[in-house]
Amino acid sequence: MLEIMRQHASGWVIKVLFGIIIIVFIFFFGAGTLRQQGDPVIAYVDDKPILVRDFTQAYNRSTENLRRQNPDATPESLQNPLRKQQLLSQMINSRLLLDAADGLNLTVSTNELRAAISHMDAFQNEAGIFDSEIYRQVLGQNHMTPAEFEQNLRDNLLVEKVRVYISLPARADESQAKGLFLWAREQVRVEYLLFPQADFLAQAQVSEKQVTEFYEQNKDKFQRPAQATFRYLAFTPKALAPYQNVSEADIRKAYDSNKAAYTRPEEIRARHILITVDPAAGPAEAEKAEASIRALAAKLKSGGDFADLARRYSQDTSAENGGDLGWFGRGIMVKSFEDAAFGLKKNEVSEPVRSEFGWHLIQLVDRREPGAMTFEEVHDQIRDQIAEERASEKTSDLLDEALDQMAAGVNIAKIADQAGLSLTLSPLVTQDGLVQLFAMTPEAAQALFLLAPGASTKTPLAIEGGYLLAEKVQDVPEAVLPLSEVQSQVTQVLKRQEAQRLAKEKAAQVLADLRAGKATAAETKGLRVSEPFNRSGLVPGLGGSPTLAQAVFAARGNEWLDQTFPLPAGMALVRLKEHIPPTDDAWTKEKDFWTSAVTQRYGEELFQAYLTDLRAKSKVEVLRADLLN
């Protein structure tokens, strides 16, 4: 390893790596916290140490996994002390269980370890076969050596063996499993009256005084975040591709040698007219939109021009282009729209189509059947591909040269000029916006954003496809947006709140009449019956409400429930219509699953009780509680 590092000591990777090693070493251990007798210890479990080094590595890996799963996570959420405490608790549990495995004479053989690794999808090639090169690459990307990974995996397999061993006595009989099945798979159907918020918006009155007061009380909600602009050089194949010379002969050769790769799927070009329907709209508004789209369909059948009607009536951004959506393939549009559009003949117009956006009329303009693409069609695509491949070969050398110049005090503008590159000026962007703009980590974005105007990055920042050198140009500090800019937004918020209050007031009035047996025909005109739903509370056509589901499943009569329920679709009054138990056929098909589920639950309870007993009998001493804050 030292010989490899010596061979590449002049490269930018090693320069950056040494910088990171020094920073991390000092940050976690400080000057002089290491003692000659060994690594620092965060905790002892029955006099056996858990090292700070191991805790730090585990925490950093878990943080990186969380960041990959949730790119929008803030640094504050990732540094949550509770997560550190939970991680240490897990490491203590693992230590106790590994010691318990010794007492139970449980081991993991080399063959078991090899089999577990070879069956992991992450280490398999396209043929589904374990590939040792992929194995090393994946571990390297996650900053682990094979020895570290294999020891961790061996420990995990051993802990799993303990869990299985302790859970063996757990068994569920058929009556226990069926009880859970009947509870979980039961459904209900309700009768309901809905009072949509949208029906009360016209009555909702908001005064200027209310707008001003709401704005003054909620200024923190109208903050324009701090922003900045940057000049930057992106060392990525995509950014450097325009500087590559690609001849027509190169493009033609690439096309001729790989024609089979250049095929097009079935595509169509279509126009549409959209009459939108708010997802929270009531039946009256939805019916009004349907009537409008059917009226337009009648005009088309009478000889109306589709593009002209789209320009005049469509509520989509494509209206100004006569409803033209351009060319698209399958999987681009929502399913109801796609099914209707691909089922049309050229120049044919669909019947009205309902989607989550509203009502559509669709006209098929043209169709391209699947097949080979011509050289002209893929010319630019091939040119860009070749350019990026050539740029990829030069990226590392260009970045290395730029770093040497920065180390010598050369500014970023001169570096760009000497490399024959152009600086790019970013738009005004927030710190979170940098993460999206460059696909960089939140930590890298924070480091970039904290630069003073005129200052440059001292080391390259990792971005999607490569690295970035940047100089801050301008800071725009955080500020409260003036009322004039947000008045319309505030007014709409207050109107929706007032409409919801009016809907609730009307619902409460009708509920009182219903429970007193005095409801009029007008009040019950909108009475409907729901589709069946389960205890999750997702009611088809109304939205989700666990509170509603809990109340309905607890009801045994058909009285109107004595409360109003706020739902995404509006305020609702509800009464139970029927309980729908699962069928005997469903039990026959699912019996094994539910028996296994209950057995697994009992086994987990046994295991948790065993683990609790181990913790009670062990001696745990935390030495570095400061690392958990």
Structure write-up:
By secondary structure, the chain is of the alpha+beta class. It is 50% helix and 17% strand. It contains 22 helices and 21 strands. The protein has a 4-stranded antiparallel β-sheet with strand order 16-3-20-19. It has a 4-stranded antiparallel β-sheet with strand order 12-5-14-13. β19 and β20 form a beta hairpin. α8 crosses α22, α9 crosses α22 and α10 packs across α20. The chain starts with a helix and ends in a 7-residue tail after the last strand. The N terminus is likely disordered.
The biggest beta sheet, please? 4 strands, antiparallel
- How many H/I helices? 22
Radius of gyration: 33 Å
Shape: globular
Structural class: alpha+beta
Q: Span from first to last CA?
A: 35 Å
Please give a quick description of this structure:
With 629 residues, the chain is an alpha+beta fold. The strands form seven sheets. A four-stranded antiparallel sheet has the order 16-3-20-19. Strands 12-5-14-13 form a four-stranded antiparallel sheet. Strands 8-7-10-9 form a four-stranded antiparallel sheet, sandwiched between helices.
What's the arrangement of secondary structure elements?
Blueprint lengths: L1 H6 L4 H18 L11 E5 L2 E4 H18 L5 H4 L2 H23 L6 H9 L13 H10 L4 H22 L6 H12 L1 E9 L12 H10 L5 E2 L2 E9 L1 H4 L7 H9 L6 E2 L2 E10 L6 H19 L4 H8 L10 E6 L5 H8 L10 E3 L2 E11 L2 E2 L2 H33 L4 H7 L5 E2 L5 H8 L3 H8 L11 E3 L2 E11 L2 E2 L2 H33 L12 E2 L8 E2 L3 E2 L1 H9 L10 E3 L2 E11 L3 H34 L2 E3 L7
